[in-house]
Design brief:
The protein is an alpha/beta fold and 1132 residues long. 49% of the residues lie in helices and 13% in strands. The N terminus and C terminus are likely disordered.
């Protein structure tokens, strides 16, 4: 066995010679010439690169005299480049080659972008560049792109009707996104917009042939009998034939194509009746699908052609803008280097002669453009190292096909399969899982376990090294499943901690961090772990960054109430909630900063008073220093004055990262001041642009010595290793969306556009044949990358690997999720409830299976009831734990049932699919006034009658103006003088905003009652209604009856002998609509509501027959998934 042991991070060459395995040594001392190395995970490829670099300098390879500056080494990150350079320097020093070691600083060891920048600066005139060019940041490039798009699009829209139609129908933001995506894809391939093509529309001849086919189909149907199925099929075929025949003769062929698509979509070919009818229907359906895709190309063609023209104009405008400012973007560095080397062969020849050895690391993450550059710089001396199973950067335009193509063409291929990282038990299971047809099959290089086990890791003997952690989560929603899985992961790791595994050895890897890492972090903290979130979330979303930026905003403008409130509520000042509330009330119409000068008027605790004084004095001091000191200095001085660094470090394991983020903001300020003469206000605008245009990462930390469980993305973990790895959230898929535009990687790139659903008569999008083909390719490549991402995650583990997911224990693993594919590969696809605790997958190769159940997270707890305070219903029936199907929410409210009564499909969109309701920007509307009335009347329920000053504050808090205060006072006084108010005042017990929860079979009916008054066992329910809608008495009864029944059922189950439900319309003279219920009514109401819930459970979600404004106007499915389209007429 070959032994590899790290010595203080540095190796001498003599040690290398002893430590290199035979397969590694074969690569290091391979003869001069092109060499392709497939290096499996953990095989020591960095060591091989360093060793070959040093061997070349020492003359151990037949390259002729070679210095450190005669070797070109390109790698993926600056960190990796620095590590290679340091190892080479250490090895040369160990060999006594001090002069060469000193030359490493001048060696060509860098990322490809830095290498290209170095070449372009050397040959700026030949490349047609200003030698003083700068490289635009992502933000600067984004701003230039925005300006170029707006300039190009405005000019085209003035003269090109097709472009104007594209922008109107798709929306400017959508078109801008499509342009950016297509432009980026083309440039990554080294292709220009002029090379782009779009699909041809079907010829008139094709349309006539299809029309004839449908005509023949109609005749064939008429010969099949006289059943309704046959008649329908014949009529559908004739309608399709007529629609297709009309396209070539139409003045507007695009509109005619849309009508044809509608006819094709409406065609009904049922597979019912005789075998001949079924066969004819199947053939007809296949014809409809094929013809629809081709006809859809007629609809898409004008948009595609217009988009190409926009791309051409954008490209010209963007290039002109960069030239005017003397900047290049990151892609320019590669593009212009490739053009320089290919159009200036003498320059390329000089580099080929200068570089005796060219090495490219992580070659699986390159693309065609980067290969062009590498080829131009090398002359039969190119060493490429990579692993196609670890290519996970498609989103950055990496093309694993380039790696595979070069492997097929290479004259010499070496394979490094020995793994020096992971325990043999982990390697064994990884081999058995991924060497299956489910994953890589025959294309997989099985790893050989070659790690030195003479100093073993103290792994608990009772625990298997590989474990499947399957959490039972039948029929719960996605958020609940994630919470349950997080609890399972935390408990499993807690068990390992009890067995002696240090928390600092544990990491949880996730494919996506958003809406996932937070739950796992909370669950781990609840189990007593320290947690370090090592990646995920954009930089500007971090609380510490937001707080410091808010502080800068207040320094720039103390009257920025939003920023000031963030500071007061955040960790810098950390005021108590009641203090914040009092300050907000004190401010009134004035700004919050002014209120801070009058703390003596508020009952503020002494420690909060001290904290406020400290922030005020800090802001005033720093305002005096504006313009005298740099922005970065202001940041550091503010943190020092407020002890913000100490606050962050005291916050736990995440403290160092948080402080590093603050320091990074200081560096961003320094960079801004170097590039611009702007003031603090200018920097704040710069930060705002940064938020929108740059997915800025958090500050990096080495992570060394952090004694905490890490949570990070798989992408962030690439190139790292950890003792215990949990790969979580394996039941979730990635982002299945492929966008609205696709570009092929063909010799002549093809552009295809997906036309929005809203542009079709029935609201259903039909993809063109070209888009469908490219989409299928994208889907196939996405699935392949998902396999690779999973493999990368698993191979990070040194000692143990835990694969975690939420599953339905009653179902087999038949889906496309990672966990289902892993279970099929592991031959445990049967329902999890049938699995044993240990499974063998090969000779001396097994893993443990933990099938666990954890309770679903509970909702917010209700407060204890009091005589005159808000509280729950007394003796409320307990909530039932239920197993619910996926389409049934665990709880429904009256509002939800009301939505279901109006439109079952709208209920599905808002409650099941959880689509977001379109936001409006109205101010001080009926909702604002209604909320203000409720707030004022709740005060009256506690015995306080709000005076005009209090009503003014309530009005302002709900976005109302002083003009509304009088109206509010009239409404409140009208209620206080009403019969209902007198009944409430005479009651024995009163509960305001009273929550309730009532079981309806497997579902909970939940809600809140505005006011509940008890006199003995007789209950009065009060619901305030605002808005001056002119409902008749009969209409009011019909409108409010279902809501009254929900209230009555809850109160009757709480023990009431009589329930009097009153809806009080406070803006209509406190008109009352009353309902009375007794215990005998409870069964009938429950049966009625249970029937509605059962319909939901059965999945009965049918859209309305036509658009109805009252119901449809705010539906998030309108114009999307809902087939009802207001363009086809509205029942307003």
């Amino acid at each position: 066995m070959c032994l590899l042991r790290r010595c203080g991070g540095l190796w001498g060459l003599s040690q290398m010679k002893m430590q290199l395995a035979p397969e590694q040594d074969a690569v290091v001392h391979a003869p001069a010439g092109d060499l392709f190395v497939a290096a499996a995970a953990g095989s020591g490829k960095t060591r091989v690169l360093v060793a070959r670099f040093v061997a070349a300098v020492l003359g151990e390879i037949e390259l002729g005299p070679c210095s450190a500056t005669d070797v070109l080494a390109v790698t993926f990150t600056d960190k990796a480049a620095g590590e290679i350079a340091e190892r080479v320097r250490a090895a040369l020093l160990a060999e006594g080659r001090d002069s060469e070691a000193r030359r490493v600083d001048q060696a060509w060891v860098s990322t490809i972008h830095k290498m290209c920048s170095r070449i372009l600066r050397r040959h700026a005139f030949e490349a047609g560049l200003d030698p003083r060019f700068s490289v635009a940041t992502q933000v600067e490039a984004g701003i230039l792109e925005q300006e170029a798009f707006e300039r190009a699009t405005r000019a085209l829209m003035a003269t090109d009707v097709s472009v104007e139609r594209l922008v109107i129908d798709f929306g400017a933001a959508r078109v801008a996104s499509m342009v950016s995506r297509a432009h980026g894809a083309l440039r990554s391939m080294g292709r220009g917009v002029s090379e782009l093509r779009v699909s041809d529309v079907p010829f008139d001849r094709s349309l006539r042939e299809w029309s004839a086919e449908f005509g023949l189909l109609a005749e064939q149907y008429t010969n099949l009998g006289s059943t309704q199925t046959v008649a329908t099929g014949a009529a559908s075929a004739r309608a399709c034939a007529c629609a297709l025949d009309a396209i070539p003769r139409a003045n507007d062929q695009t509109a005619a194509a849309r009508e044809a698509l509608q006819s094709l979509a409406d065609a009904k070919f049922y597979k019912k009746g005789s075998q001949e009818v079924k066969e004819r229907a199947e053939a007809a359906q296949d014809l409809v699908a094929a013809v629809s895709a081709s006809v859809a190309q007629i609809v898409a063609a004008p948009y595609e052609q217009a988009l190409v023209r926009v791309l051409e104009a954008f490209d010209s405008a963007y290039e002109a803008a960069k030239a005017e400012r003397g900047v290049l973007d990151f892609e320019d560095l590669q593009l212009k280097t490739a053009v320089l080397l290919e159009t200036q062969p003498d320059i390329a020849s000089r580099y080929q002669e200068a570089f005796k050895l060219v090495m490219i690391d992580e070659f699986q993450d390159t693309n065609a453009l980067q290969l062009r550059i590498a080829r131009a710089l090398s002359s039969d001396d190119l060493l490429t190292v990579g692993d196609d199973k670890q290519s996970i950067y498609r989103f950055r335009h990496a093309d694993v096909g380039v790696f595979k193509s070069l492997a097929d063409q290479a004259s010499s291929v070496s394979v490094l399969r020995s793994n020096y990282r992971s325990h043999q038990d982990v390697i064994g299971v990884i081999n058995e899982l991924f060497d299956t047809s489910t994953f890589f099959g025959g294309d997989f290089v099985r790893l050989s376990a070659m790690r030195d086990e003479r100093v073993p890791y103290a792994w608990p003997e009772a625990e298997r090294r590989v474990q499947f952690l399957l959490t039972d989560a039948q029929a719960t929603n996605a958020e609940t499943k994630r919470a349950m899985e997080a609890a399972s992961i935390a408990r499993r790791l807690a068990a390992l901690r009890e067995a002696g595994v240090p928390q600092g050895d544990m990491v949880v890897l996730l494919r996506a961090m958003t809406r996932r890492s937070e739950g796992i972090e909370s669950a781990l903290v609840a189990e007593g772990f320290d947690v370090y979130v090592a990646s995920g979330g954009t930089y500007f979303e971090r609380a510490e960054v937001d707080e410091v930026v808010s502080l800068l905003s207040v320094i720039d403008n103390p009257r920025d109430d939003t920023a000031l409130m963030r500071i007061l509520a955040g960790r810098m000042v950390a005021l108590e909630e009641h203090t914040l509330y009092r300050l907000a009330n004190m401010a009134g119409p004035k700004c919050l900063w002014d209120a801070l000068a009058h703390l003596d008027e508020a009952d503020v605790p002494s420690h909060d008073t001290e904290a406020i004084g400290r922030i005020v004095s800090t802001v005033e001091a720093l305002r005096r220093n504006r313009g005298k000191r740099g922005i970065s200095e202001l940041i550091h001085e503010a943190c020092e004055l407020l002890d913000y660094d100490l606050v962050l470090f005291a916050s736990g394991a995440a403290g160092p990262r948080a402080w590093a983020n603050v320091l990074k903001l200081g560096r961003l300020a320094e960079e801004y001041e170097q590039r611009s003469a702007g003031d603090l206000g200018g920097f704040l605008r710069h930060v705002a642009l940064h938020r929108d245009l740059s997915p800025e990462k958090q500050a990096t930390l080495t992570g060394e010595g952090i004694d905490a469980v890490r949570i990070m993305s798989v992408h962030a973990a690439k190139g790292l290793e950890f003792p215990v790895v949990v790969v979580g959230d394996l039941a979730s898929g990635g982002d299945a969306s492929c966008g609205d535009v696709l570009v092929s990687r063909a010799q002549e790139p093809l552009l295809a556009v997906r036309v929005p659903k809203s542009l079709f008569p029935d609201g259903k999008s039909v993809e063109s044949a070209a888009f469908s083909d490219l989409k299928e390719q994208e889907s196939s490549e996405d699935l392949a990358e998902a396999d690779r991402l999973l493999y990368v995650a698993c191979t990070r583990a040194r000692e143990a690997l835990i694969l975690s997911a939420c599953v339905d224990l009653s179902k087999s693993a038949e889906g496309r999720s990672d966990i289902d594919r892993l279970r099929r590969a592991a031959r445990i696809a049967q329902p999890a409830a049938e699995l044993g605790t240990e499974v063998s997958v090969g000779a001396d190769c097994s893993f443990a299976v933990h099938v666990v159940s954890v309770p679903a997270p509970a909702g917010p707890a209700c407060e204890t009831a009091g005589s005159t305070e808000s509280g729950p219903l007394p003796q409320i029936a307990p909530m039932l734990a239920a197993t619910l199907p996926p389409s049934l929410p665990s709880a429904v409210s009256y509002t939800g049932l009301s939505v279901y009564a109006d439109c079952t499909y709208k209920f599905y969109a808002t409650r099941i699919a959880r689509l977001k309701t379109p936001t409006t920007h109205a101010t001080a509307g009926p909702l604002g006034f209604g909320s203000a009335v409720h707030a004022a009347l709740q005060l009256s329920a506690t015995g306080e009658t709000p005076d005009q000053a209090r009503l003014s504050r309530i009005a302002r808090a709900h976005g109302l103006t002083e003009d509304h205060v009088g109206h509010l006072q009239v409404a409140v006084q009208g209620y206080l003088d009403s019969e209902t108010a007198r009944t409430v005042r005479a009651a024995e017990r009163v509960h305001a905003e009273c929550p309730f929860a009532v079981p309806l079979g497997d579902t909970i009916l939940q809600g809140s009652i505005d006011l509940l008054a008890w006199t003995g066992s007789v209950a009065t329910v009060v619901d305030y209604k605002t808005g001056a809608g002119e409902l008749s008495s009969e209409e009011a009864v019909a409108r409010y009856q279902s809501q009254a029944e929900c209230y009555a059922l809850a109160v009757l189950q709480a023990g009431a002998s009589c329930v009097d439900v009153r809806f009080v319309e406070v803006e209509r003279g406190c008109r009352e609509t009353r309902f009375e219920y007794r215990p005998v009514d409870a069964g009938r109401i429950a049966a009625k509501l249970t029937g509605v819930v059962s319909a939901i459970k059965r999945g009965e979600f049918a859209p309305l027959q036509e658009y109805t404004a009252r119901v449809c106007y705010d539906c998030p499915a309108l114009g999307g998934t809902c087939p009802v389209n207001p363009r086809r007429g509205a029942a307003v």
